[in-house]
Amino acid sequence: MTHFDLLLRGGLVVDGTAATAARHADVGVLDGRLTLLPPGAPAAARETADLTGLVLAPGFIDVHTHSDGVTLIDGELGGDMVRASVLQGVTTEICGNCGSSLFPALPGRLAAMRAETRVYFGGDVGMYEGFAEFAAAHAAVPRANHLTSLVGHGTLRAGVIGPGDRAATPGELDTMCALLDRALSAGAAGLSTGLIYTPGTYASTDEVVALAAVAAAHGKPYVTHLRDEMSRVEEALEEAVEIGRRSGASLHVSHHKTAGKYAWGLTRRTLPKLAALRAEGMDVTCDVYPYTAGSTALGAMLPPWASDGGIAALTARLADPGQRDLMRRAIAEGVPGWENTVGNGGWDRISIACAPRHPETEGHMIAELAAVRGQDPLDMVAELLIAEQGEMTIISHSMIEDDVRRVLAAPYSMIGSDGVPKPGGRPHPRWAGTFPRVLGHYVRELGLLSLETAVHKMTGMAAARFGLAGRGVISDGAHADLVVFDPGTVADGATFTDPLVPPSGIHSVIVAGRTVVRDGTETGARPGAVLST
Ligand code: ZN
Known about the structure:
Blueprint (H helix, E strand, L loop, with lengths): L2 E7 L2 E2 L9 E2 L1 E5 L2 E5 L6 E7 L4 E4 L1 E3 L12 H13 L2 E6 L14 H12 L9 H9 L6 E4 L1 E2 H9 L8 H17 L4 E4 L10 H13 L4 E4 L7 H15 L3 E3 L13 H13 L4 E5 L5 E4 L13 H8 L2 H13 L7 H5 L4 E5 L11 H8 L3 H11 L5 E4 L4 H9 L3 E3 L14 H16 L5 H8 L1 H6 L16 E4 L20 E6 L2 E5 L2 E2 L11
The structure holds zinc ion (ZN).
The site of zinc ion has 5 residues, from loops.
């Protein structure tokens, strides 16, 4: 008789594959690996848990986070933010999304980039030459769950040619390809772009094709925040498909949405397009978070030329009334190739999430704050951005529920929080609520997805897409990353006013065979690792 470290008896096993219906089974854990047993099979263990009435599933894989540096920030500051992910059942986070990662860069660029990362990650989290150096920095800070990272194209670009608005020279592109190749060889999970963000937005389609071809050579995906998710979303999707086709890389569309009043309902066109590509044999998938609001940097509301040269250049332009007028005009009239969030929605749909030196503004709509001050919204935004040295996050209430549901229901969509954990402020509740919200609201309350399908989107589908071998499934020999939840009560607790409230119904979370959350509370165990793919 095998003597397990941990024996989980009586649970309803939802195994993370799309193929198997939920069934009762016992699961043994030994040396961080799983063994499936018939219900009630004779077995011994150091610790046995009775999961009667509960679901046992593979730990959730959050395919889209911006948690690259949160554990590297001072532990006290990072505490609640760090905890939020594992408390919702996430056992692996995939960061480095939207073109932004903490590596790679040429050694001579590291110091300047390190200073700029404060803005994106809310603290001095470092900047690293490659994936191995990034992994070593994380290995020095114990963590509850696992982490892996994509290679951010914007970071790669800034790490070779700097933050300027210009094309890469052939030599620079070769250097970018070489750094990317090294990072992917060292274990990074793929290439990501954020084509609305500077400096990624300065790249031509050809530049991205050349880089995506490097990912293709490693059999790793090209993951993209499209150049436009609003009125020009269909054009932007065409560009992504072209990049996938020409490079040979598999294509993964990040947080797929059709946002802003001119794009509402366009998932009726984008999703059939993705389905048709799949029917033709193209390997294309997407992820989605279950909310009708997005969140990003306030600076992304300004035309790309405003940030040419980096944050110091941006704040200098914001201080110049003539430049402000040009920005106001760009927002009113649009700029070809630029996703204009304010022009597509308005300052009355955008609230401030995080302004470290102006917490009184957090949670309020920009139009409302400007009206109270008797100011033009852009002038107020300019003054705040200067005072905050660019370090501000917003929430944009830009989507409609029908679109969110259609993407959630698409058979090739997986779940990613797009969480942006930075200390302070009122971040988007998705960082603390995404997975329980899908299980509670969309599975139990609305019946939009079956439990098996929803779990698959959070586990097996994600592991297959991002090369996480032996994870995302409950099967003999798989890694013992698990979550136990109550299907009758699981629900998100986080709201826009109180964004870090833990979920209900997530009973326990097991990482590498060790219990990191028990009865909804962290145990203090830190078995998490940086995973190579
Ligand atoms: Zn993004």
